[in-house]
Amino acid sequence: MSGTLGDLGEFGLIGALTERVPVGPHVPLGPGDDAAVVAAPDGRVVATTDLLVEGRHFRRDWSTAYDVGRKAAAQNLADVAAMGARPTALLIGLVGPAELPVAWALELYDGLRDECAVVDAGVAGGDVVRGSAIMISITALGDLEGRPPVTRSGARPGDVVAVAGWLGWSAAGLAILSHGHRNPRAFVEAHRRPEPPYAAGPAAAKLGATAMLDVSDGLISDLGHLARASGVRVELSGELFDIPAQMRDVGRALGADPLQWVLTGGEDHALVATFPAGTPLTARWRVVGRVTEGRGVTVDGEEWSGTGGWDHFG
Ligand SMILES: Nc1ncnc2c1ncn2[C@@H]1O[C@H](COP(=O)(O)OP(=O)(O)OP(=O)(O)O)[C@@H](O)[C@H]1O
Ligand SMILES: Cc1ncc(C[n+]2csc(CCOP(=O)(O)O)c2C)c(N)n1
Ligand SMILES: [Mg+2]
Ligand SMILES: [Mg+2]
Ligand SMILES: [Mg+2]
Questions:
Q1: Considering only the top CATH level, what class is 160-303?
Q2: Whose CA is nearest to atom 17 of ligand 2?
Q3: Which alpha helices (DSSP H) does 49-164 contain, by range?
Q4: In sequence order, which residues have a C-beta less than 8 Å from that of residue 68 and are 6 or more positions away?
Q5: Residue 292's beta-bridge partner residues?
Q6: Which of 13, 91, 92, 228 has the fewest Cβ atoms nearer than 10 Å?
Q7: What is the ipTM of this complex?
């Protein structure tokens, strides 16, 4: 579809966007009324919201609209999974200038649709408003399927700390793009379209995870939240992190330390969880440390000095 948002108008835009995304199997009443109706068989709904702002979370010369849609959905769906829940529906707030090509908004929705399809979720509704920068605000809902939520506060001394998913790939991709390069592609693609291990969230809950979160800002920073909420210390072992040879090569080429990407890089949306010692973990989980009495996060016995991850106002 050619033209701009200004050409299409608010209701034309809503029509064009909503016909692009299915509401999915959990939404008996989708876009078109004052509110949507989302099924909650368990009676308890997980709800979470995250914003993406142009220039801060993405650049249009680094990512396509489709990539931004995939990433916007992924970062919200990962928060649902990190509670041990199954995502059911998204609500999308879209702000953009009148000059924005309609094609950009439609491709954004194609990305949202395809990421939702990974977890069988849909788009239940949203809002569109004119504004100077592009901003995407997403609320994700999920179903606990009768289980208690896996919070950040349940880690106990003696637990093991384990990770499912990627660490450091998005940060390596961001570093590559920031240096004006586009290769190696694998890292750039990981930055544009993270692949959170969604199924590991509910699976961790079933395995008896005591605490869990997704790594959005950086492992050290995010585990700091978990340690604080649980009143424990998290001790990581550097040797348990396996850094791919290709990531070491990129680090060498850019003069960066790949372990820094792995430990403090955000946006891969890996899941990190604590489990009672002896829990029979499946192959998707890699043990990277343990929980002890105390506070804070250590790497090889040392308190991490420097930034542990992204801080929007830091
Ligand atoms: N403006 C706000 N008003 C109310 N609660 C907020 C606000 N901002 C954050 N929170 C709450 O603070 C907690 C931590 O938020 P945070 O955004 O750090 O988590 P996250 O989404 O897992 O991380 P990230 O934003 O890096 O993906 C969440 O429970 C969130 O709902
Ligand atoms: C253009 C551009 N510059 C920098 C970054 C890096 N970045 C932005 S937000 C964030 C942490 C998660 O954010 P939030 O806490 O809001 O979920 C990171 C690592 C990027 N993605 N794009
Ligand atoms: Mg958030
Ligand atoms: Mg999170
Ligand atoms: Mg988040």
A1: alpha beta
A2: 216
A3: 65-81, 102-119
A4: 52, 58, 108, 111, 136
A5: 233
A6: 228
A7: 0.97
Q: Supply the residue whose CA is at minimum distance from atom 29 of ligand 1.
A: 48
214 Cα to the center of ligand 4, angstroms:
5
C-alpha–C-alpha distance, residues 154 and 160, integer Å = 12
Q: Is the CB of 88 under 6 A from ligand 1?
A: no
Which residues 6+ apart lie within 8 Å of 244 measured at CB? none
Q: What is the pLDDT of residues 118-149, one digit of tens each?
A: 999 999 999 999 999 999 999 999 999 999 99
Token pair recorded at residue 45 = 């709904």
d(CA 127, CA 195): 26
The third-level CATH classification (topology) of the domain covering 5-143 is 60s Ribosomal Protein L30; Chain: A; (3.30.1330)
Numbered residues of the known binding site for Mg(2+): 34, 48-50, 79, 127, 214, 217
For 203-253, write each residue's pLDDT tens digit: 999 999 999 999 999 999 999 999 999 999 999 999 999 899 999 999 999
Residues of each domain in the chain carrying CATH 3.90.650.10: 160-303
CATH 3.30.1330.10 domain residues, the chain: 5-143
Annotated binding site: 34, 48-50, 57, 79, 109, 126-127, 152, 214, 216-217, 267, 310
DSSP characters over 245-298 = HHHHHHHHHHT--HHHHHHH--SS--EEEEE-TT----TT-EEEEEEESSSEEE
Residue 123, classed as helix, strand or coil, is: strand
- By residue count, the chain amounts to 314
